[in-house]
Each structure stands twice: as C-alpha cells, then as structure tokens.
C-alpha cells in the first residue's frame, strides 16, 4: 500500500460517526435482514463492526494481540447504544497525539508483524466507508458520504491487493469487480472491494 503522509483522522472520524446515524435507524426487527456481506445478516454485521472498533482501539493502545477485543459478541436490544459507545472508544484512541506513529498489532491482518498507526487508520477508514454502505443497503437507506471522505478513501481502495487472499474464508473483501467508465467514487470503491453497488 502506498505511503500515507496526510493526517486523515478528521476524515476518518467523520466517516465513522456517519455510521452511528445509520445504525441508529435500525430496529430489532431489522436485525435478521440480509446484508451485502455474504452469509451475514444485519445482527452479525453490527456485531462485527462493534468488535472491530474495540479491536482497533485496543491496538492503538498496545493491546491488539489480545484477541478478546476482536471477538464479536451477540447483540441485544441496546445494539445501537453499544455501537455508538464503541465508536467513541475507537475515535478517542485514534485521537491520542502520537497514535499515527505507534505500532499496531492487527491479528486479522498479520500475526507476525505490526503496522504503523497511520496505515492502520486507513484500514479502518476504508472498512467503515464500505460497512456504512452495507448497513444502508440492508436497511434500504440512502448512503452519501461527504466528497472529501470518498476522495480520501478511493486511493486506499485502489491500493488494497486484489489477490488470492480475497478468496479465503472470512476474507474482508471479495475479488474486485470491473469498474465501468464514468463510475463515481463510491461506486468505484465498492466495486474495487468486491461489492455490487
């Protein structure tokens, strides 16, 4: 992945906070709705998203190797509040002054190396732009991230390797799909990461 020099934390925070408003629109009756994530209903997706926030927050604070932070828990009727709390936790962790230069242990990406915080932030950003779309699609809601969010996320999506790892069970993204000429930035991000907008 290309070197990231810009501090993307304000854009990242805006993208992640936007998912809180989407999740708040869901009702317990929606949790059985299918999502664009193969084999996941909305309950499974929200459990994953909530756990990922806790995992990245733990990694920012030097505890990323503890898999308990990354393990999804069954969600209950308070899923929206728990999700919002997880967002606060991860954004507070990423707001710490030297976090972009800290080594992150991210067991879902590698068990034998660390990632600079600046790069870890891009992983989290692209994941939540896509998962925001997943939630919106599941709920039948419009999804229109701010142009600056899409402008920052598109180069990251273009840099995600499109290799055999995408065929592995549980892979974060499916193989890339062709991007027709004239596709907008959101459509290109989704297609590059295996979604079908």
TrEMBL record:
SUPFAM superfamilies: DinB/YfiT-like putative metalloenzymes. Signal peptide: none annotated. It holds the Pfam family MDMPI_N. Residues 13-136 form the Mycothiol-dependent maleylpyruvate isomerase metal-binding domain. Gene3D superfamilies: dinb family like domain. This is TIGR03086 family protein. It comes from Actinoplanes ianthinogenes.
């Amino acid at each position: 992945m290309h070197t990231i020099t810009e501090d993307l934390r304000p854009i990242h925070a805006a993208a992640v906070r936007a998912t809180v408003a989407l999740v708040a629109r869901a009702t317990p009756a929606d949790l059985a709705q299918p999502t664009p994530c193969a084999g996941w209903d909305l309950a499974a997706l929200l459990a994953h998203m909530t756990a990922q926030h806790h995992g990245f927050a733990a990694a920012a604070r030097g505890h990323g190797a503890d898999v308990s932070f990354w393990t999804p828990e069954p969600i209950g009727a308070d899923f929206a509040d728990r999700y919002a709390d997880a967002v606060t936790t991860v954004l507070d962790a990423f707001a710490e002054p030297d976090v972009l230069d800290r080594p992150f242990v991210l067991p879902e990406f590698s068990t034998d190396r660390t990632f600079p915080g600046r790069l870890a932030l891009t992983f989290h950003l692209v994941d939540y732009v896509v998962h925001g779309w997943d939630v919106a699609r599941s709920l039948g809601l419009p999804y229109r991230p701010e142009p600056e969010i899409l402008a920052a996320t598109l180069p990251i999506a273009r840099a995600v390797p499109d290799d055999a790892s995408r065929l592995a069970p549980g892979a974060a993204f499916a193989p890339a799909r062709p991007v027709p000429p004239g596709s907008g930035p959101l459509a290109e991000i989704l297609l590059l990461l295996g979604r079908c907008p």
